[in-house]
Amino acid sequence: MKRGVRGLAAPLLIILLWWLGAESGVGPGILPHPREVLAALADLAARGELQAHIRISLLRVIQGFFLAAGLAIPAGILAAGFSPFAEYILPLLGFLRQVPPVAWIPVLIMVLGIGEATKLAVIAYAAFFPIFVNAVLGITQIDHHFWEVARLLEFSPKEYLRELILPAAAPSLIAGLRLGMSNSWRALVAAEMLAAFSGLGYMLMAARSLVRMDEMFIGIAVIGLLGLAIDWGWKLLEGYVLRWQSRE
Fold it and tell me: What is the pLDDT of residues 148-162, one digit of tens each?
């Protein structure tokens, strides 16, 4: 409880300083008054515009994230269990991992256009690497005694996956998925700012074009709060998995 109260201290202090600065006339035309931001928030919500942008952004990030997970987890299992595959793929992935997702946006626009495919590709690219790396780490760190028992029991490939790999590597996989979702959310906003006509990132750029600082503040706050809520949900899931594994 005390930790939660302390965590609110810095945001409340920033809001107080913002309010005092706006009241004293600091940055006229640049720093909107909190009352103006609240009024703009009420207007956007009443028109349904804010909800529409949130819904579109959440749908995009979910689609891109699941695309990344569907590619990264099988690739991680293969890389951890089949050394020739790892020898071929890891150098390439090591190179691609150093290239920021935003760097691919101009190329993807040229190849795929400005439609949904570009944004989903950027989101999936951003989420892929932490999921893949954690999948490999989680599997390679499984105790060799467990592998020996599985061999003695003559597990089928499905049983290896269901009875050994997924339960034993679950904490690492969940951590990778959490990092992947965080990367997805940040990449989504960047992609929407450069290659979209809807979503929270687009809303920020549209507000900039109209010099609507109040709407820009709303966009930043909503992006941060939604990202925090998503990460909090993954943190709860991670804690549940760890407790379940300790009971097992």
Answer: 888 888 788 788 888
Q: Write the pLDDT tens digit of every residue in 139-189.
A: 888 888 888 888 888 788 788 888 788 888 888 899 999 999 999 999 998
Rounded Cα distance, 102 and 15, in Å: 31
8 Å CB contact between 207 and 215: yes
Closest CA to 123 of 167, 172, 58: 58
> How far is residue 127 from each of residues 90, 99, 130, 131, 209, measured CA to CA in Å?
17, 13, 6, 7, 30
CATH code of the domain containing 193: 1.10.3720.10
Read off the pTM.
0.86
Full residue range of the structural domain in which residue 222 is found: 48-247
